[in-house]
Design a protein that fits this description.
By secondary structure, the protein is an alpha/beta fold. The protein has six helices and 17 strands. The relative contact order is 0.10. The N terminus is likely disordered.
Length: about 375
């Protein structure tokens, strides 16, 4: 009998001040310009008699002092024991996440995450007013489509209202592209440029956001979700494939699975809503992004875990056809193909998806 125990060790930031130009903390305040200071310089100041680390960053074209989150290092220790008289122990470190998470001084929902040796990335964070630090709270990552933005996507779907009304933390990241003067996209595998052909590690980016938010708020580990449209739906599929130990369920609108292989060790519930008239991401595959048939790929996600024996049932309605299956542990996979729908997101999709996500927590 083998027991596997994971121990997470979180280390606070180690700030090496000797490499930073001297700056008088007395002359620094959040939002103040730092024109004569090197970008990246950090200073500890007092706010309401509490120490706060600020960093010099470019905000809207001007150098300003903004609040900085601490850096975080995480390692995982795995111990293995048997019933025999001998035992072994192996330590396998996870990827080290070394980053700074800074809150915009003008828009408190906008964060700039700077991962070591990478360009800064941004995401939006909404925490419901009803958040209780003693009660684990679900978290939803929402990914815009190709050429979109976090602000436009969350407003179009009214996600902040759902966050407040249904009590979940909302994270809406921006894809990569505008940094290079191109459209925003997600590296979901075989799609989409410019992020995938520049080797952008969007999975690492999402992991860093999750770790940063989890340090500040009590996240419900059984309800960590991804939702996305088109290229954002592709990104949600990739997270289900590669980060199934974290993500318990995904909601996809007009997307597809475009990674070379998908064998998540943990079951992931899926709701995928699609339009039969979608010529951008055709249900039968192909199209401008040369995707595989949507239904075939959808069925493959849980074939490498304990839900591999799920039996799919097809149900025909007047305006749609659904393909669904339920695993013994409650994991469910459902794809609904709407006959008259094209490549867009009807307003009712959002509510239907969020209800599905809430109904499918990961079982202990």
């Amino acid at each position: 009998m083998t027991a596997v125990k994971k121990v997470f060790v979180v280390l606070g930031a180690i700030l090496v001040w000797t490499a930073i130009p001297a700056v008088s903390a007395n002359a620094v305040s959040i939002g103040q310009t730092c024109t004569k200071t090197a970008l990246g310089t950090r200073v500890s100041i007092q706010v309401n008699k509490k120490p706060v680390v600020v960093v010099c960053r470019t905000v809207a074209g001007r150098k300003k002092w903004i609040r900085a989150a601490v850096q975080t290092l995480v390692t995982t220790t795995t111990s293995t024991s048997t019933t025999s008289t001998s035992s072994t122990s192996t330590t396998v470190p996870e990827s080290v996440l070394n980053f700074i998470d800074a809150i915009d001084p003008i828009d408190p929902n906008l964060h700039t995450l700077t991962i070591e040796n990478q360009r800064p990335r941004t995401y939006r964070l909404v925490v419901p007013d009803s958040y209780n630090s003693q009660v684990p709270t679900p978290i939803l990552f929402a990914f815009h489509g190709l050429g979109g933005s976090a602000a436009t996507f969350e407003n179009a779907l009214q996600l902040p209202l759902f966050s407040q009304g249904m009590n979940f933390i909302l994270v809406t990241p921006n894809g990569w592209g505008s940094e290079a003067g191109a459209q925003n996209s997600w590296n979901a595998g075989k799609c989409c440029a410019p992020s995938n052909n520049n080797g952008i590690d969007d999975v690492f980016f999402v992991k860093a956001i999750l770790q940063s938010v989890s340090r500040k708020y009590l996240v419900d580990s059984s309800r960590i979700w991804a939702m996305g449209f088109s290229n954002g739906g592709m990104m949600s599929y990739r997270l289900a494939c590669e980060v199934s130990e974290k993500f318990s369920a995904i909601a996809v609108g007009g997307g597809a699975l475009v990674v070379d292989s998908c064998s998540p060790p943990h079951p992931v519930s899926i709701i995928h809503l699609h339009g039969n008239q979608d010529s951008t991401i055709p249900i039968d595959g192909g199209g401008p992004f040369i995707i595989p048939p949507v239904i075939n790929a959808f069925k493959q996600v849980n074939t490498a875990n304990e839900c591999s024996a799920m039996q799919f049932v097809v149900t025909l309605e007047s305006n749609s056809e659904s393909t669904s299956a339920i695993c013994v542990d409650g994991t469910e996979a459902k794809l609904i193909n709407y006959f008259d729908q094209a490549h867009n997101w009807p307003s009712y999709w959002t509510k239907d998806m969020i209800k599905f996500l809430f109904a499918h927590p990961r079982k202990p």
